[in-house]
Amino acid sequence: MSSKDEKNLAQVIDKIATMDEPQRSTMQRVHDIIVSVAPDLKPRIWYGMPAYALSASTPALVTLRNDERLNLALTEKVELRPAGGADGALMPAAWYFETVDEDTEKRIAEIVRAVVS
């Protein structure tokens, strides 16, 4: 890992560490899921949020927000496909969560894998 990647990772870890519980533990778990299933994504801060990109100099693909609710979102830089079915031309790009159970963990992993595949 390059020193810039290490610095960016440290900034993401520090950002998560500033969050109040239980959001901090939940966001740390989501961060761990992302770096585990997509080790090619590089953590960095993007508009003040923990985010993940293909390199330190490319736009973020995945972001994590801690507002009134926790949020996993894909940026406009991801190739999004219409959902079809009842959602027609809508493209799923953000998911809110409060906790991460086993099913949520699996779904987050699927979403992140789809970003990098």
Automatic annotation (TrEMBL):
Pfam families: DUF1801. InterPro entries: YdhG-like (IPR014922). It comes from the Bacteria. SUPFAM superfamilies: YdhG-like. Residues 23-115 form the YdhG-like domain. This is DUF1801 domain-containing protein. It comes from Nocardioides jishulii.
